[in-house]
């Protein structure tokens, strides 16, 4: 039996935030923004990466491990209660502690109908100036995840994962209709005039390419505002511009550069099949010829 097109239209909410120093303030504002998105008709809401705090990975300081908590844990439970209250599906990025000395950058997915659905641990961990995540996070060990939520099948990836076509492909191959990327990315202010435009364009282009190559939606939710390096001069000017790309790569909505925003966008899930019928990349993949992808390099 054919599915009515209108039954495949969902409303997706993006929460772009400017982070304060106080984690409790950030958490309360994130919860309020989720309620605002629900009031605007959102069925799914995605928060930025590590929204509970400023981006502490700019420096290496063991005091920041105190921000971590078990997942699921108290914050997860607050989002379970919020999802139950609002009917939302919520994608929340948390700093997870498994035991002393073992931490992950983790996303939880909670569903108003079904409660806590599970978690994804960030697979690709960067180590660059002001992005010293390898000091804090162990690479994920849960594989690439898809959550069959009430409105849609969600693939949950995180920030640095967004540069890897393999991660997008494997998640889409597990049935994801929407690839979500909670994100914390921006400019080094001293480089912005010379490299800023190209850096931002590359970030958006690679994710739009994931949407095209996999014929699915891509949602990237960033933070905004300047955050100083807690250990030295300088910092990161987060570039905001959270966006959604459709299965053809078109940008359907984009948040501002330097302002908080709660956006709700209508996504037509039936567009996925139409796009894949026209551009049948899954049909034409040469899976017999890709074995060397599991090697480090082709030498």
Question: What does the model show?
Answer:
The chain has 299 residues and is an alpha/beta fold. The protein has a single domain, classed as Nitrilase/N-carbamoyl-D-aminoacid amidohydrolase. 25% of the residues lie in helices and 30% in strands. The chain is built from six helices and 17 strands. Strands 1, 2, 3, 4, 5, 11, 13, 14 and 17 form a nine-stranded mixed beta sheet that branches. A six-stranded mixed beta sheet has the order 8-9-10-12-15-16, with helices on one face. Strands 6-7 form a two-stranded antiparallel sheet. Strand 8 and strand 9 form a beta hairpin. The N and C termini lie far apart (51 Å).
Please provide a brief summary of the model.
This protein has 6 helices and 17 strands.
What is the arithmetic mean of pLDDT? Answer: 96
Under the CATH scheme, which architecture would be assigned? Answer: 4-Layer Sandwich
Helix content: 25-40%
Terminal CA distance reads 51 Å
Query: Tally the helices: what do you get?
Result: 6
Stretches with pLDDT under 50, minimum 5 residues = none
Features:
about 25% helix; six-stranded mixed beta sheet; nine-stranded mixed beta sheet; about 300 residues; 17 strands; Nitrilase/N-carbamoyl-D-aminoacid amidohydrolase; alpha/beta
């Amino acid at each position: 039996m054919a599915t009515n097109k209108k039954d495949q239209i969902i409303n997706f909410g993006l929460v772009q935030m400017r982070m304060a120093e106080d984690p409790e303030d950030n958490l309360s504002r994130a919860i309020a923004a989720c309620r605002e998105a629900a009031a605007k008709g959102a069925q799914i809401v995605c928060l930025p990466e590590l929204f509970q705090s400023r981006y502490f990975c700019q420096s290496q300081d063991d005091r920041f491990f105190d921000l971590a908590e078990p997942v699921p844990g108290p914050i997860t439970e607050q989002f379970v209660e919020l999802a139950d209250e609002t009917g939302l599906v919520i994608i929340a990025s948390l700093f997870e502690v498994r035991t002393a000395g073992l931490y992950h950058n983790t996303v939880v997915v909670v569903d108003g109908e079904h409660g806590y659905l599970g978690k994804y641990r960030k697979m690709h961990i960067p180590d660059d100036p002001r992005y010293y995540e390898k000091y804090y996070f162990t690479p994920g060990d849960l594989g690439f995840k898809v959550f069959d939520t009430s409105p849609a099948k969600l693939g949950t990836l995180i920030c640095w994962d967004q540069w890897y076509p393999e991660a997008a492909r494997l998640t889409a191959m597990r049935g994801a209709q929407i690839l979500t990327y909670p994100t914390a990315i921006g400019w080094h202010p001293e480089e912005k005039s010379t490299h800023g435009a190209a850096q931002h364009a590359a970030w958006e282009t690679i994710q739009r390419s994931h949407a095209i190559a996999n014929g699915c939606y891509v949602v990237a939710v960033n933070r905004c505002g300047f955050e100083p390096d807690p250990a030295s001069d300088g910092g990161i000017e987060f570039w905001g511009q959270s966006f959604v790309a459709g299965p053809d790569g078109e940008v359907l909505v984009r948040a501002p550069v330097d302002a908080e925003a709660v956006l709700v966008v209508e996504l037509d899930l039936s567009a996925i099949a139409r796009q894949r019928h026209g551009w049948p990349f899954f049909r034409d993949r040469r899976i017999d010829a890709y074995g060397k992808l599991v090697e480090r390099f082709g030498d």
